[in-house]
Design brief:
single chain; four-stranded mixed beta sheet; elongated; Alpha-Beta Plaits; alpha+beta; 2 domains
Length: 217
């Protein structure tokens, strides 16, 4: 699947817009981040919690140092997308060209839905749910532990994250459960649950949130 085929025209803000405009957009769209432009030029990503200490009448141009330099170039690879998504835990990743012009964004839910429909046979896999303090959580560490224990990863998604805890769900085929769980505990992970996928797959499939977040890697 070509990820470029899934570029979306998501809501954006301009540097000339006010803080009040930005707050209204966040409230209406329920987004946590929005791309900020100066005409077509991409200036950065604004997060909703960046606006807390500023007056409504101020312009975004006055707080442009708050904008995060998060984006993908149009010649990105799927690995670039995976790394950016897992590093920043954002729903929409801005896409720009070499002239720094904003092209649109890639929505994680849209892409994951496409991946989830690829028909992979994971009936004999298992689902492991882990949590760890958010300031210590690293997506790459989870996969390093799985790889070190010869576990084959079918998919993963972030089930919940806040300033305290991040919870991840991984769909795997493992060689030894005890050794795998011990490895995660040594790295400070809390084992929330572990299930055979064939026992729970139908329940999970009926959950729209599961379908919208499922990521095949």
């Amino acid at each position: 699947m070509k990820l470029k085929n899934h570029i979306q025209a998501t809501p954006t803000l301009e540097l000339k817009d006010s803080i009040q405009d930005a707050k209204h957009l966040f409230e209406q769209t329920k987004r946590t981040s929005v791309a900020v432009l100066d005409d077509k030029q991409y200036k950065g990503l604004l997060f909703d919690d960046d606006l807390v200490d500023y007056k409504n009448e101020s312009l975004l141009n006055h707080i442009k140092t708050k904008l995060k330099d998060i984006y993908l170039l149009e010649d990105f690879t799927i690995f670039d997308w995976l790394n950016t998504m897992s590093l920043y835990q954002i729903q929409d990743i801005p896409l720009i060209n070499l002239n720094n012009e904003y092209l649109g964004s890639l929505n994680i839910n849209d892409i994951i839905l496409k991946f989830s429909n690829t028909g992979l046979n994971v009936d004999k896999s298992s689902v492991l749910i882990l949590s760890k303090p958010s300031d210590e959580f690293k997506y790459s560490e989870v996969f390093q532990i799985l790889e070190a224990n010869d576990a084959k990863v079918y998919g993963s998604y972030i089930n919940h994250t806040d300033k305290n805890q991040t919870e991840i769900v991984v769909n795997i085929h493992h060689q030894g459960l005890n050794e795998l769980l011990q490895s995660f505990r040594r790295y400070g992970y809390n084992i929330i649950s572990f299930h055979r996928e064939d026992q729970h797959r139908e329940t999970l499939k009926n959950n729209s949130e599961y379908l919208s977040k499922y990521l095949t890697v």
